[in-house]
Amino acid sequence: KAGVTQTPRYLIKTRGQQVTLSCSPISGHRSVSWYQQTPGQGLQFLFEYFSETQRNKGNFPGRFSGRQFSNSRSEMNVSTLELGDSALYLCASSLSPSGGATEQFFGPGTRLTVL
Amino acid sequence: KQEVTQIPAALSVPEGENLVLNCSFTDSAIYNLQWFRQDPGKGLTSLLLIQSSQREQTSGRLNVSLDKSSGRSTLYNAASQPGDSATYLCAVTRGDTQGGSEKLVFGKGMKLTVNP
What we know:
The complex is a heterodimer of chains A (115) and B (116). Chain A has 115 residues and is mostly beta strands. In chain A, 0% of the residues lie in helices and 52% in strands. Chain A has no helices and 11 strands. Chain A has strands at residues 5-7, 10-13, 19-24, 31-38, 42-50, 53-57, 64-68, 74-78, 87-94, 105-106, 110-114. In chain A, strands 2, 4, 5, 6, 9, 10 and 11 form a 7-stranded mixed beta sheet that branches. The radius of gyration of chain B is 14 Å and the shape is globular. The interface between A and B is medium-sized, with 33 and 28 residues.
């Protein structure tokens, strides 16, 4: 069974630009979550999507947005990039049956560098 | 607000030593706790998930214990090897998951170096 895949693996952008990251979950998984990892803040939750609906959202500005498609693939978008957005962006998927949280599996991440 | 702490932030041990990695959380109303391993520049690999109703879970050389009431979990690694060198993170999900939510709250991780 294929794992969680993320594209692209590396991105270099300049301040003010926007970026779109993609995540394909494990087949059959319906929940996709996004996290930002930086050396100073560690891993911080961005948002979670389930059945094309945002189910939970972290404390990030509105420049960070996401969506999920009917095949459970997800994208996140960051507009008006700032230097502080440089980070490793990780996507996780889980089965998430009704009620309760389940084991989460992470992708390799997208390393975003903002210059 | 749930906070997860892992102390120490880094640990260096000789090969063969038995390891005990600690994780503490402030809100005992968790649904489950998950331990991950992260190699430099890579994503997270799930090691073990333990439900809040469980006290202990084992997988290979790894054993995880959970004391929900005191807000503590321990990852025990028997006979460590150089290949075990990585950063280990623990994370919890909230207990109020009616209707579901997979949000994980992470500790900052513990960087382990196993010296041959």
